[in-house]
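Quick illustration, no need to memorize.
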Amino acid sequence: MDEQATVVQALGIAVAARVPVLLWGAPGTGKTSVIRALAEGAGLPCETVIASIREPSDFAGLPVVIGRDGASAEPHVSFAPPRWAVELARAGEGIAFFDEISTAPPAVQAALLRVVLERTVGDLPLPDGVAVVAAANPPEQAADGWELSAPLANRFCHLDGPLDARTLADGFSAGWRAPEATELAPGWEQRIAVVRSWIAAFVTVRPTLALAVPDDTAGAGRAWPSPRTWDMVARLYAAAEGSGVEPLLVRGCVGHGPGVEFLTWLVEADLPDPEAVLADPDSFVLPDRGDRAYAVLTSIAAAVAADPSDGRWERGWRAFGRAGEAAPDVAAAAARTLARARPAGAPIPEQVKAFLPLLRDAGLVA
């Protein structure tokens, strides 16, 4: 698969997972066409908003004074949404596409903050089925370009759209093929908690990467690590797992350096699948390295918390019982999550006894 097709695949996964995504590229490279074709292929309505010709009120809403309505109502101000937002709310799903976002002045960027993060325009919340997508030229190549503000940049997964010569040649000779609709694996959202546990283990080893705002304006206007973008990593990694584009999405959320560090740590940790551990907890062997042990146990607890049914909670404690014999301190740190996942009426397994003092202090058992 060429690099351009890989970026389009990553873009489709971000749209399907409803994570805000920003496609960067030089003028004339087809960013707008790709996004519109992606919407068409997925059968989603696409409302295009050119950021460079909009005012802050086009995103924050236009204030309208509402008079008395009945005996008890007081006059108040409501922020009316523009037409594009009303159309998306009426459709119930779609893509809010903000084009030329790097030409939006700071006041417009500030108005976009709530739209991108909360999908709320004025006083109108957009449905969960609406994805936020943006496109931008690098500021030095844009007409009256601006660097993105750090708060706005930190709300997106950033993808660079390369121009692949072979794809261009094939398109000119045989026509342009529309991107296929992206379908995520059933139950992918249950994996989010597991990936979060991996991230938690990683940032305990590299605490400076939990939040690292770049000092320069250009760096702050692209991807960088924060609790928000690490949470985006968890969602996108879970959505993309097995597709091969996970590295592109991870780097697009937290930046190249932190993303490579996390991916390298994940490979070197060689963590067992928590589902495999839950299938056979009596053969579970806790890794010797502390960060690996913590990551494995937190991922087991997260997998159980996502679905504690069918004896999974009890099997989780069997794995924790074996871990408690090898590294009681590490196991105790993750035991609270497992205890909170107890299904109603589930009997207390024998292995819980080793963790009773900790769980009593946390108020999780009597």
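Residues 270-361 form one domain.
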